[in-house]
């Protein structure tokens, strides 16, 4: 999320046509095309954040600037050359790191939250407990996970929460 990414396409000699077909999970389809016989590029319904990395006759790679949730989806490059037709497909998955937080609720119970992550984070406690994490999905595809520490009996004064996510892990302790 927020980084630039480059998707490569098969570079063959004597290319006559290159087409990128983009099918995002959200929003409409987009295509970028290049015809060598006319030295002509064409784009249909593509945002300004998606474009050729270089001149397509030199290298038909695609660059996506500041990747966001809207760019998640399938990207297919089709190359037509005198050697034949070639395809390369990518499935772009966007990781959104959650915003972790540990606090004490009004009853003095430790609460661990991993807000607005994609995919949903996994929460666990250092001391085993029987909590059942709650998940709340948001319109933008992110998920907030909330877990209340519910150990039956413990004489520990400090509780530690761990949040696990593909974009990074987080640990914090609290005494309620």
In short:
It contains no helices and 15 strands. The protein is mostly beta strands and 176 residues long.
Total helix count? 0
Form type: rod-shaped
**How many β-strands, per DSSP?**
15
> Share of helix among residues?
under 10%
CATH fold description of the largest domain: Immunoglobulin-like
What portion of the residues fall into strands of 2 or more residues? Answer: over 45%
Helix and strand sequence: EEEEEEEEEEEEEEE
> What top-tier CATH class of the largest domain fits best?
Mainly Beta
Query: CATH H-level name of the largest domain... which superfamily?
Result: Immunoglobulins
Poorly predicted residue ranges? none
Average residue-wise pLDDT: 92
Query: How many discrete structural domains?
Result: 2
The appropriate CATH architecture of the largest domain is: Sandwich
Structural class: mainly beta
